[in-house]
Design a protein that fits this description.
Keywords: Cytoplasm, Methyltransferase, RNA-binding, rRNA processing, S-adenosyl-L-methionine, Transferase. Its EC number is 2.1.1.182. Belongs to the class I-like SAM-binding methyltransferase superfamily. rRNA adenine N(6)-methyltransferase family. RsmA subfamily. Residues 25-198 form the Ribosomal RNA adenine methylase transferase N-terminal domain. GO terms for molecular function: 16S rRNA (adenine(1518)-N(6)/adenine(1519)-N(6))-dimethyltransferase activity; RNA binding. The protein is elongated, with a radius of gyration of 21 Å. A hairpin with a 2-residue loop joins β1 and β2. It has two domains: 5-196, 3-Layer(aba) Sandwich (Rossmann fold), CATH 3.40.50; 207-272, rRNA adenine dimethylase, C-terminal domain (Helicase, Ruva Protein, domain 3), CATH 1.10.8.100. It is built from eleven helices and eleven strands. With 273 residues, the protein is of the alpha/beta class. The relative contact order is 0.11. It is 37% helix and 19% strand. The strands form three sheets. It has a seven-stranded mixed β-sheet with strand order 6-5-4-7-8-11-9, with helices on both faces. The structure holds S-adenosylmethionine (SAM).
Length: 273
């Protein structure tokens, strides 16, 4: 049998289609999500319904976003899910989650076994809507989950860790082997819970500056911070901010990156005035 065919559907690689087939894993994920009636549950990439069905058994209404037209059409005629579903047949990257939350009248609970080829840009897209989101549960490559949760002084710590932790509390939930999917992906997977902070622990004045500093620093992660950020800060400025200039990008905390971004914002503002 062609192992790319699952429930009569030929898995499309370009849509990152790896369908969950393991009852125990599916039940564990749904237990972690713990959906309740009258919550604004939103699934990204429902596919053949591996998570949608058990979630749909527990609640009356569910919003799903599915790019694949054939899969969206299947859901439209699904025996018991169809009347419960609001289906957006579109790219989740173009979804306005603030508008969706306004339509549903409450913060969103977003979940999904994400297409791995777009998981990082999709998470950045979602981070820009954290005001409209109560929490998120995602299946991702294990390596991406490791990066999301990593703290300073570790190899996995990078720009994704800083940006995710700026917006959210990040909690690893479950590890999942390739055999839990059809077709089996080449990598290990894991589920993560992201809970947007109700009050940002280190608010920055201009997000684009935090983004720029972390990009510069981690693009040259082997250099000392004095060198990698040399065109933005003098060594004296960094030291005044309490940053040891002999350290590298991976040794700097989220709080310190935010402090650096705010210093830069103030410096630019004082130049303009
Ligand atoms: N939830 C199903 C499961 O667990 O078996 C399917 C998961 S599969 C890894 C990813 C799903 O996301 C597929 O159904 C795929 O068609 C859909 N998808 C891919 N790219 C998408 C996008 N940009 N926006 C929305 N859905 C997308």
């Amino acid at each position: 049998m062609n192992n790319r065919v699952h429930q009569g559907h030929l898995a499309r690689k370009r849509f990152g289609q790896n369908f969950l087939n393991d009852r125990f894993v599916i039940e564990s994920i749904v237990a972690a999500i713990n959906p309740q009636k009258n919550q604004a549950m939103v699934e990204i990439g429902p596919g053949l319904g591996a998570l949608t069905e058990p979630v749909g058994e527990r609640i009356d209404k569910l919003t799903v976003i599915e790019l694949d037209r054939d899969l969206a059409a299947r859901l439209q005629t699904h025996p018991f899910l169809a009347p419960k579903l609001t289906i957006y047949q579109q790219d989740a990257m173009t979804m306005n989650f603030a508008e969706l939350s306004a339509t549903l009248g409450q913060p969103l609970r977003v979940f999904g076994n994400l297409p791995y080829n777009i998981s990082t840009p999709l998470m950045f897209h979602l981070f820009s809507y954290t005001d409209a989101i109560a929490d998120m549960h995602f299946m991702l490559q294990k390596e991406v989950v490791n990066r999301l949760v990593a703290g300073p002084n570790s190899k996995a710590y990078g720009r994704l860790s800083v940006m995710a932790q700026y917006y959210c509390q990040v909690i690893p939930v479950l590890e999942v082997p390739p055999t839990a999917f059809t077709p089996a992906p080449k990598v290990e997977s894991a589920v993560v819970r992201l809970v947007p902070h109700t009050t940002l622990p280190h608010p920055v004045k201009e997000l684009r500056l935090l983004s720029r500093i972390t990009t510069e620093a981690f693009n040259q992660r082997r250099k000392t911070i004095r060198n990698s950020l040399g065109n933005m800060f003098s060594a004296d400025e960094l030291e005044a901010l309490g940053v040891d200039v002999t350290k590298r990008a991976e040794n700097i905390s989220v709080a310190q990156y935010c402090q650096m971004a705010n210093y830069l914002a103030d410096r630019q503002a004082s130049k303009e005035s």
